[in-house]
Amino acid sequence: MADDSDTVITAAVLVIGDEILSGRTKDRNIGYIAEYLTGIGIDLKEARVVADDVEEIAAAVNALRTRYTYVFTTGGIGPTHDDITADGIAHAFGVPVVLHPDAVDMLKQYLGDNLNEARLRMARVAEGAELIENPVSKAPGWRIGNVHVMAGVPNIMQAMLDGIAPTLATGRRMLSETVEGRGVKEGDIGGPLGDIQARHPGVMIGSYPQFDGTRFTTSIVLRSRDAGPLERATADVRRLVDTLISEPDR
Amino acid sequence: MADDSDTVITAAVLVIGDEILSGRTKDRNIGYIAEYLTGIGIDLKEARVVADDVEEIAAAVNALRTRYTYVFTTGGIGPTHDDITADGIAHAFGVPVVLHPDAVDMLKQYLGDNLNEARLRMARVAEGAELIENPVSKAPGWRIGNVHVMAGVPNIMQAMLDGIAPTLATGRRMLSETVEGRGVKEGDIGGPLGDIQARHPGVMIGSYPQFDGTRFTTSIVLRSRDAGPLERATADVRRLVDTLISEPDR
């Protein structure tokens, strides 16, 4: 894992599955992967959710793998007929789907007599892929080029990501500070906050209102790869928030 | 709202916000909108998450609005400098950003002397837009062409969606049945389930494993716009699940 380089490493997440688009299953993988990548110094730049459709998967994979350092897919690598992620990704790379011999061996060893034709589908990969270990239920994920193919079941995906992380190039970590403006309305802080943003172009300043049903409060999140500018901008925001909180009639 | 038509109405969701991609905020809007649209007979076909970046927003909006009947965006319509959804969508449509006079009036009436320059940002729309009511906190959403621009705060977004729904064309509702295969492993049901799918091409059959840390169970979800074929395929799946559950050594 390369650290402290000035290179910015980027990524996209591709969630594959009709069940997410129908609303039956609520995705929990985008948020998890987003937080995980931020933590190791990789910028998640985009996420997409597409249906179980070979052409849709292939089009999304090709759009994303050419733009970002890494792509992480979740879903569609199980043993049933609707698990067609391998087909979509093979199509994107213009290679056939093959049974990975190591995956077949692993499944044989783990499943013994229970290894039937359906379960053998879990050894299907795009030709040229390398396996990603699945410590939870053995059926592996895999990587081809810069695309990492992971399970959709959250705890399995998370275990796979732990296995992948040490193999990834990472950039300088994004640092972040949060100033909680309790009782501060976004509309009151908006003007002067924009001025602070203008004075600190190297720091990304986001403003996030929460609404508890009766009133808003505002969290200001500051992000930068450089500690000095981040500290100075954060000090300015803290002063602003203190001023607003101490004003009467709030 | 047109009902019982044979037209399939499609949609995409575009979530706009750095906070989702950094993992700081976990998106809850995609899942809510997915379930909502399914319920009123609109097929959500794709979802994307992009950063607070005018070019990224514009590119995604143009990719999605040309492919699907409707696009629903969430986020980036508040009063701070990082709320640039209006800029991105105006750019996509090739029109300027303007202050919508009705939105200005509404904000004046609601906010009185608190209407400052920052809050006035909440009246910014792409030229030609129509307002979408915000019963929670007044600052409106808006629609231009087939693109509906909504708040990112979930309860405000949900209220806006309730207001939009009666204006949408809807297709024949997708019907769905779920067969819970408790104790059924996906790898055991995979083969015969694929055969059932092949016999019922008009029904979409999905298989969704859950894993509770020690073992998998499998939910089979069948979907079709036609009740007859759905009923017949569901009966086949129920028979299959019953057979698997009654087998010894499971």
Notable traits:
24% strand, homodimer, alpha/beta, 250 residues, three-stranded antiparallel β-sheet, Alpha-Beta Plaits, Molybdenum Cofactor Biosythetic Enzyme, Chain A, elongated
Task: Explain what you see.
2 copies of one chain form a homodimer. With 250 residues, chain A is of the alpha/beta class. Chain A has 2 domains: 10-167, Molybdenum Cofactor Biosythetic Enzyme, Chain A (3-Layer(aba) Sandwich), CATH 3.40.980; 175-246, Alpha-Beta Plaits. Helices cover 39% and strands 24% of the residues of chain A. Chain A contains 9 helices and 11 strands. Chain A has helices spanning 18-21, 29-40, 54-65, 85-93, 101-111, 117-120, 154-164, 186-199, 227-246, and strands at residues 10-16, 43-50, 70-74, 97-99, 124-126, 130-132, 141-144, 147-150, 175-181, 204-211, 216-224. A 6-stranded mixed sheet of chain A has the order 2-1-3-8-7-6, with helices on both faces. In chain A, strands 9-11-10 form a 3-stranded antiparallel sheet, with helices on one face. In chain A, strands 4-5 form a two-stranded antiparallel sheet. In chain A, strand 7 (141-144) and strand 8 form a beta hairpin. Chains A and B meet through helix 1, helix 2, strand 2, helix 6 and helix 8 of A and helix 1, helix 2, strand 2, helix 6 and helix 8 of B.
Strands side by side in the biggest sheet of chain A: 2-1-3-8-7-6
CATH superfamily of the largest domain in chain A: MoaB/Mog-like domain
* Total helical elements of chain A: 9
Query: Using DSSP, what is the number of strands of chain A?
Result: 11
Q: Which CATH first-tier class of the largest domain in chain A would you pick?
A: Alpha Beta
Low-confidence stretches of chain A: none
Q: What percent of residues of chain A adopt helix (DSSP H or I)?
A: 25-40%
Percent of residues in beta strands of chain A: 15-25%
What is the residue-mean pLDDT of chain A, rounded to a whole number?
A: 92
